[in-house]
Amino acid sequence: MIPLGRKVVKQRKGRKNIFNKEKLSKLFKSVGSNKGKPNQVIGKKGKRKQKIKIIALVIAGCVIFGCAVLAVIMHILFAPKEEENLLNNMPSILEMATDYQGHWAEEQIVFLVNQGLMTGTSSVTLDPDGKVTRAQFVIMLYKLDKGRLPIIDEKIVLFEDVLDNFYYTDAINWASSNDLVHGISSSEFIPNYLVTRQQALTVLYEYFRKVNDNGIDYSSFKLPYKDGYTVQNYATLGVKWAFANNIIDFWGYEKLEPFNELTRAELATIIYNYIENVQKS
User: Fold this and answer.
1) Chain-centre distance of CA 34, in angstroms?
2) What pTM was computed for the model?
């Protein structure tokens, strides 16, 4: 008797074939029906089924890969337009926010938002009474400039606390390279420090001198404010210039309070008045 699993060898001539059809059919089983059993003899039908399975897997793999490639191509061709349409149809911050409505600076805020100079502090707030940081102020001035003053690469001050490729990086590099702002120290800018009224007017005046200077000497102008004497020396000329050009008339003529921290509504009004009274003239 031949052990199960060994090859069946044709009998020599003259010898009786001890294997009938029934025994042979039992001997040749497909691999799929006896997985894991040793000494399995694979029949023709089993081999054929195995080939069919392999071919089916290859075809399925090709189909899946082809669909993935097609999906990538479709995304490249059509997704940008869909995303652009989605962005165009997104509601404006003026539609989402309500905290500016009825505010004394509503007109100025709406103007700056529409000009792309002012953004919300969140998707649903403009926070008109919030305080202005050094980074926020410089960003607004950078947007206002619109390329009039180029960034001077060799004069950029590399502050240790100004991160690379951050939302304020280009604006601070632009302002520092044009001597509009300086650091709190030689290595620190402190982007989140709050800006005072006199600081904001000083920086805006320095910007004016570089792009719109009309040659007028503002040093002889007198300030009507009762606390005008408290303005620090470095800021005196900038405050006088702002007063002479009706940039800060919304504060009235009693008190300037130069050390008060600037609010977003006040900054919006200052920039609005600068555009109307200085830039357009």
Assistant:
1) 59
2) 0.69
